Amino acid sequence: MKYRKMGKTGFEVSALGFGIMRMPLKKGAKNDKEIDEELSIRMIRRAVDAGVNYFDTAYVYHSGVSENLLGKALKDGYRQKVKIATKLPLDHVKEPADFDRVLEEQLARLEDEIVDFYLFHGIGAKGWDKIVKLDLIDKAEKFKKAGKIGHIGFSFHDSNEAFHKIIDGYDKWEFCQIQYNYMDTENQAGMEGLRYAASKGLAVIIMEPLLGGRLARPPKDIAAKFNGYPAKRSPADWAFQWIWNQPEVSTVLSGMSALEHVEQNLVSADSSGAGTLSAEDVAFVESLKPEFLKRAVIPCTKCNYCMPCPSGVNIPWNFEMYNEGIMYDDFSAPRFGYKHWFPDKEKADQCTACAVCEEQCPQKITISEWMPRVFEELNKS
Ligand SMILES: NC(=O)c1ccc[n+]([C@@H]2O[C@H](COP(=O)([O-])OP(=O)(O)OC[C@H]3O[C@@H](n4cnc5c(N)ncnc54)[C@H](OP(=O)(O)O)[C@@H]3O)[C@@H](O)[C@H]2O)c1
Questions:
Q1: Where on the phi/psi map is residue 100: left (φ > 0), alpha (ψ -120 to 50), or beta?
Q2: Rounded distance, CA 368 to CA 366, Å?
Q3: Which amino acid residue places its CA nearest to atom 5 of ligand 1?
Q4: Which of 12, 51, 13 lies closest to 266, judged by CA?
Q5: Tens digit of pLDDT for each residue in 178-216?
Q6: Helices (H), 211-278
Q7: Ligand 1 mean position, distance from CA 134 (Å)
């Protein structure tokens, strides 16, 4: 295993970290609580034995049982070899005392006395305002002093502007966790955010390096690009190496869901390192992004000229999710998002085909014709 600096914390973290969010489920499982514990524990221990020393869980993963699983897996002397990270779900915090309750519950689930790396979970500008309003940083510092938390950080999903606001809002952040891969260089924190956080001494943990698995199983035309390139690596390996090549990165979390993923990603990590890819290799990986983007069928540029829609449809967002499904030849993530996060009153089926938007669209998209197709595809279960 290769190890990397974890920013100002001084910890030497394994290049590969393990995200406990996508563990294998029992055969016929009816929900994601029904983890295949025996296999999951084997996967976690295999990773520790091979030198992985950073495990990332959260209060809400696997509907609340991920922390329990990790606690169990790290018995028999495994806990002493690793650092664990878990997160505060702000949805569960209405007043500061809720932080005490959640943390105590997490320590009980983990069967532990300390969380080495503690994150405010998935925050953006709104989450940050709540943290400030409820003075939760002060509480986190108290928990740190009391030895219940090792290091204070946050995981992030919002704009680059919000990322700067959060980083600049507290001068003692020790680490942050961002969604980052060769498709997300200008999305969310992006490459600029990665470099900015690292320049401030923060350790930067990477999540969704394979875009939840989609970069590991590219559509045929993109798979052909991998096959045609002289150096041979799997699509997953290329995606990981491109991230590890960047010195600002501390560890790359993978949400491994099978023992083969653990074995393959351990091999990838062993050949990783900042600055180890050739300029040609970097250019090859970066040439894939426009190839994926070219696959999008609706030429929406998100200029927002079509908005506001008189019926409340969020036209650019509907198009973005549809295009995402087409780009990766995989509608599972957009459909999940449509069902769970997309407000019903902004969905494509609210379109009355008044076509006011079409007069405004510089790309001349026949929006009213697309809307029923977009809804039909995204609304499938
Ligand atoms: N804090 C937050 O807001 C937040 C959000 C997202 C993630 N996270 C954390 O970050 C971790 C990493 O993110 P992620 O799980 O989205 O990572 P990811 O690496 O982008 O996606 C994981 C998926 O990639 C596939 N995969 C992994 N290794 C592979 C291999 N060698 N070959 C082929 N496919 C492979 C698997 O997909 P299949 O199972 O489909 O085969 C796996 O479930 C999470 O587990 C979680 O701990 C945090």
A1: alpha
A2: 6
A3: 207
A4: 51
A5: 999 999 999 999 999 999 999 999 999 999 999 999 999
A6: 220-228, 235-244, 259-270
A7: 32
Cβ–ligand 1 contact at 24 (below 6 Å): no
- Identify the band that residue 337 occupies on the pLDDT scale cut at 50, 70 and 90: very high
Within 13 Å and on the Cβ side, how many CA atoms surround 92?
18
User: What is the whole-number distance in angstroms between the Cα of residue 246 and the centre of ligand 1?
Assistant: 19
Whether residue 18 contacts residue 47, with contact meaning beta carbons closer than 8 Å, is answered with yes
Encoding tokens for residue 97?
């005392």
What pLDDT, on a 0 to 100 scale, did the predictor assign at position 381? 87
How far apart CA 138 and CA 32 sit, in angstroms, is 34
pTM above 0.90, yes or no: yes
For residue 47, the CA-to-ligand 1 centroid distance in Å is 15
Domains and CATH numbers, the chain: 3-277 (3.20.20.100), 315-378 (no CATH)
Buried b (16+ CB within 10 A) or exposed e, 141-171: eebbeeebbbbbbbbbbbbbebbeebbeeee
275 φψ region: left (φ > 0), alpha (ψ -120 to 50), beta (else): left
Contact 207, 217 (CB under 8 A): no
CA neighbours closer than 13 Å in the CB half-sphere of residue 209: 29
Whole-angstrom Cα distance, residue 179 to residue 291? 20
Q: H or E element: which one contains 83?
A: strand 83-88
Tokens 């490459």 — which residue? 191
Pocket test for ligand 1, best of 253, 263, 266 (most atoms within 8 A of CB): 253
Whether the CB of 214 sits within 6 Å of ligand 1: no
Q: Pick from 151, 140, 129: which is nearest to 203 by CA?
A: 151
d(Cα 36, Cα 58) in Å, to the nearest integer? 18
Q: How far apart are CA 322 and CA 336, in angstroms?
A: 12
**Pocket of ligand 1 contains residue 19 by CB under 6 Å:** yes
Going by the DSSP 8-state scheme, the letter that residue 121 receives in this structure is: E
